[in-house]
RNA methyltransferase (Sphaerisporangium rufum), 421 residues
Amino acid sequence: MSGGTVVPIELNVERVANGGWCVARHEGRVVFVRHALPGERVLAEVTDETTRFLRADAVEILDASPDRVAPPCPFAGPGRCGGCDWQHATLEAQRRLKGEVLAEQLQRLAGLEVKVDVEEVPGAPQGLGWRTRVQFAITPDGTAGLRRHRSHEIEPVDACLIAHSEVERMGVERRNWRGAAAVEAIATGTRERAVVVTPKGQRTVAVPDLAAEAHVLVDEGRGHVRAVRGRTALTERVGEREFQVTGSGFWQVHPGAAATLLGAVLQFAAVRPGDWALDLYCGVGLFAAGLAEAAGPEGAVLGVESDARAVQDARRNLRDLPQARVERGRVEDTLDRLGVERADVVVADPPRTGLGREVVARVAGLDAARVVYVSCDPATLARDLAWFAERGYHLADLRAFDAFPMTHHVESVALLTREPR
Ligand SMILES: C[S@@+](CC[C@H](N)C(=O)[O-])C[C@H]1O[C@@H](n2cnc3c(N)ncnc32)[C@H](O)[C@@H]1O
């Protein structure tokens, strides 16, 4: 907005929308408002304006929702840290709102009427202290902070309440990082050093008394974190099995999420001994391991993953399961390249962009009895489910998990089955 005093507008807040917003209306235009809750009357400052809609921050609550609480974090609130969206709502309300968002996306984009209960993920009872990877932005004077919402500005913080205690014990916020643009701290609980990658190379930082795994990446000032150079593997444990995760390879950030999602995937996949299963976008092999154990030595599992280091990790993590193999490549080309024509079960866990129409068509063509779709984005999940429906696969079951408390993000696991012929 241009300079001068910003006059707040009064809004009656309606429903929740995807992305941590609520919907209101002002002079014929939709307003997407943050820091508000459905049913509230608020004064809001407009932060962004187009011909079709406004964005605004609630700055004063005139009628509060019964779901409202004081944010536990002092850096949450209008114009402050953009890392969390729902610090001002109870955890129960946050989960209800996420369920409403998922249900609304499924209704609007896939024509599905579903009631969604978002389940708690064990390991963060207050919704705090769960984030095992935190990307800190660095101010020009070297102070660590977090980005403000939809902004390049940095909010200096002296602690992040959703960060895991081991990330906090690294003390990234208490060090000076002059010359770096970003630092990513990754904690898992077994390593005792921090590795810093600078433009001049990699160095190891001693972190005194750190009974934590610390892994810090620094970029070259271009505003993004680069993959770590060299082999700095972390070890994650799920049940009896250990998973090596090298560099910035994908692993769930909530310490309870990997085991919880694996449980949901195996429940829906219902793999039987001798089955032929695919794990698409397999990362370091979390789901492939469970599928291979269930399929047994007579079965077979193929993991497909595009990231070279994740493929190396997956092969290592699955080396005691000869029925599992991992192929490096993009899902879009690899199934064709390998001539994969059928499967009993397909698990797919794509990035936020979802599967897309072509991969949906390719997966549906495999004629699997069950397709398990793991998604971190309700909108792309709903879009893809509509395409699956065109090809005869329908939503048979859905579980959703609060793997990112205090934020608007929600993780879903959908079971798709074929229409009987
Ligand atoms: C959400 S992660 C899932 C990882 C794994 N299922 C897990 O739970 O740990 C998505 C993975 O897909 C990989 N990926 C991204 N685009 C891909 C593509 N087009 N083809 C194959 N893998 C891809 C990423 O490298 C990442 O490891």
Q: What stands out?
A: The radius of gyration is 23 Å.
